[in-house]
Amino acid sequence: MDGSYEFLEDLRRLSAAYRRLEGGLYLLNSGMIATLIYIVALYLGIPTFFGFYWHGSILAAAPAFVSLILGLLGGKVIDRRSRYDLFSHLDEAISEKTKAAYDNRGSDSVVMQSLAEDVKRCLSTVGAADLMNSRRLYLGTRSVPAFQAKAGALLLLLASAAVFAHSPGDGAPPQPFSSLSDLRDRAMALFADEELPEEAGSSPGISGEIYGKPSLAVLEEVNLELVLYPGSAAGFRSRETDPVDRFFTISEPGEGVAVPTDQYIESLPPQHREIIKRYFENLATIS
Amino acid sequence: MRDDLINIYKDAPAIFETIREEIGKVVVGQKPVVEQILVGILAGGHILLESNPGLGKTLLVKTIASTTGLHFSRIQCTPDLMPADITGTTLIEEVEGSKHFRFEEGPIFANIVLADEINRASPRTQSAMLEAMQEKQVTVGKNTYRLEEPFFVLATQNPIEMEGTFPLPEAQLDRFLLKVFIDYPSPEEEYQIMERYTGHAEPKVERVITRRELLSLQQLVRDVPISDDLKRAAIKAVVSSRSWEGVEYGASPRASIGLILASKARALLSGRDYVDRADLEVMARPIFRHRIILTFDSERRGVTTDQVISEIMKAI
What is the enclosing helix (H) or strand (E) of A19? Predict the structure, then answer.
């Protein structure tokens, strides 16, 4: 802007305020989009996946960075769609005369001087809040409540994302599904031809709790997780027996302690010892 | 000079109000027509008035001329009117025994020229007015004579009596800034006209503006600020008229100049120191209606030029 009319000072002030508002709106829009994208990513388990495989690396934060970049790009698209035009956000009566005065700021005619004084009077009554136009916010009919509503929506989204991210169980690293699945398939193939004892399938009182509980075994210094999948035991079922003393090694939670093979075998119910022993022998040949 | 302009600018609203009051003493109603004629005068353009007979075209022009105190002349156009009857002619004059040529000015040498029923004049005579209207000068023989500022031609024409008339060529029509239609007065206004002109007292108007003041106002009109957006809108309207459906020939660049000038004049007349979109929309009709020629098919379908202009202005 050039020229020496006083209204140009007011226009500069409003222009700066308008740019700040534009910046605020851009950040709000970007934040909303980024948060939405991150919520979707959380729902799909992408951040957990990255966290497990690249724990401690910068790649673990990749989903958050990508969400942020996509949010900024989305905010830019909205920002570009709503082109910068201060005059259109002034009151209709003031807008036309301000535009005329600004476009003719190089003239020093009598009429222009009169218009400049008039525009100066009008612009002095316009505040930054008057520039917030509901059309730009796409919400509500009043600008300030619409702005607040948008900020509130962003806070809600951020809170939802936080709840998602810290829900119980989600913080733990996931099991290596693919390796377990392979193991399960191969184990099932090994036991597919085994003949079951006659009395095995007829015992009542079978608890479903034997499935899906992982155990830890160490074989030749390799940690192995043992999971019994429904159906993977080839029809073998447990039944109630007399109480038997078991040998347990006391250890701290999370610490796998190696148990001598003989002790482990002896701690098993006699009728199961043979099949478990063969299970581990076969497992050893597989790995 | 600048002080004069400042004073005139301050007094402008009062001057315009007084002119309206004076004209209102003689002319009943027709406020939009009066406004458009004042716009034409302030913009320094020529005006073509069209109406059925008896609607007071001549009276209106004479009244406006009286309020301004400008030199007024009237030309009653007929088919046998010769160009020299308008521009003037060179006479041989004898002074103290010696003879010399003297140029006798015609009625075109006035500030406001009323060319009554201009479409009755022959094309040759109509053309004689072309130079005067555009260049504001008259050439007779080898001599060129400047016309005194301000200079306006206010021509009237009657649309219903076509026999024995010579429709104005497009080139000449384009030289008129505005084409103004005068409609019939309302029954109430007609009653007032009857009352006013059937008594003994003839309404009189007084001069309320001087030639110098009018020239200053014309200068102020050109200084009225207009935004670049509205200038572009005016150009867009003119350009659109050339390719508009149902239009044979669109408006010339003179139309965009005229539209901006007329809008500025209307803004000043309305007491505004800037042009707004309403000025463009209101002035578009009188500016475009004689510059747009519809196709035969459009005319056959009953489409009017004013309808096309409204569509164009809505579209921009």
Answer: helix A7-44
Compare all CA atoms of chain A with the CA of B225 and give the residue at the minimum distance: A100
Decide if domain B224-316 falls under CATH 1.10.340.30.
no
Domain range annotation of chain B: 2-222, 224-316
The tens digit of pLDDT for each residue in B8-27 reads 888 888 888 888 888 888 88
Task: Specify the 3-state DSSP secondary structure of A172.
Answer: coil
Question: Which 3 state secondary structure label does DSSP give B199?
Answer: coil
Q: Which residues of A touch B226 (CB under 8 A)?
A: 100, 103-104
What are the C-alpha distances in Å from B312 to residues B232, B257, B299?
A: 14, 17, 17
By Cβ distance, the residue of A101, A103, A112 closest to B223 is A112
**In A, which residues are within 8 Å of B229 by CB distance?**
99
Residue of B nearest to A108 (CA): B223
Query: Are A103 and B225 an interchain contact pair (Cβ–Cβ within 8 Å)?
Result: yes
Asked whether the beta carbons of residue B5 and residue A112 sit closer than 8 angstroms, the reply is no
Using the predicted structure, report yes or no on whether residue B231 has a pLDDT greater than 90.
yes
pLDDT for res B14 = 86
Closest CA to B287 of B237, B244, B245: B237
- What's the average model confidence in pLDDT over B40-46? 91
pLDDT at A214: 57
Which residue stretches of chain A have pLDDT < 70?
1-3, 81-84, 128-148, 150, 161-184, 186-241, 243-257, 287
What are the residues whose beta carbons fall under 8 Å from the beta carbon of B47, sequence distance 6 or more?
B36, B37, B40, B41, B152, B153, B154, B155, B176, B177, B178, B179, B180
- Measured in angstroms, the CA of A97 and the nearest CA of chain B are apart by 6
Query: For residue B239, which of B222, B228, B227, B253 has the smallest C-alpha distance?
Result: B253
Could you say which residues from 79 to 138 on chain A have a Cβ atom under 8 Å away from some Cβ of chain B? 96-97, 99-104, 107, 109-112, 114-115, 118
Find out whether A217 and A226 touch, Cβ atoms under 8 Å. yes
Rounded to a whole number of angstroms, the distance from the CA of A107 to the nearest CA of chain B is 8
The mean per-residue pLDDT over the stretch B165-172 comes to 82
Q: Report pLDDT digits (tens) over A199-217.
A: 444 444 444 455 555 566 6
Query: Per-domain residue ranges for chain A?
Result: 7-165, 177-286
For domain B2-222, the question of CATH label 3.40.50.300 is answered with yes
